[in-house]
Amino acid sequence: MARVVTLTWYEDGALGTPYKSVPEDARTDLYGLGFQYHPYQAAFLLPAAYGEDGRDLRLRALVHQLAQKGIGVNLRHTTTPAIAATRPAAPVPTTPSVTAHRR
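User: That's the sequence. What structure does it adopt?
Assistant: Structure tokens below.
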């Protein structure tokens, strides 16, 4: 398909896509299925609050609706390395090692 909407699936369960990357005739479909426009991020976002089942139903409906217009949907997962890097390291076990008891 010549036209495609790429949705990013974030770790918290939300789906998002930059506003400018969405074909004009697909924007109403996103709105109708619960995507919200966030002006500060210049993006459409389907909140994680819909839950896994709600997200899946909306995503299937979106794929179906956009396919009828000749628009494909790509789904990609993202990780946020900056957040992962700031998490504290796993605690080190406090049990004594075997070598500490040898004499």
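Helices lie at 27-32, 51-68, 81-86.
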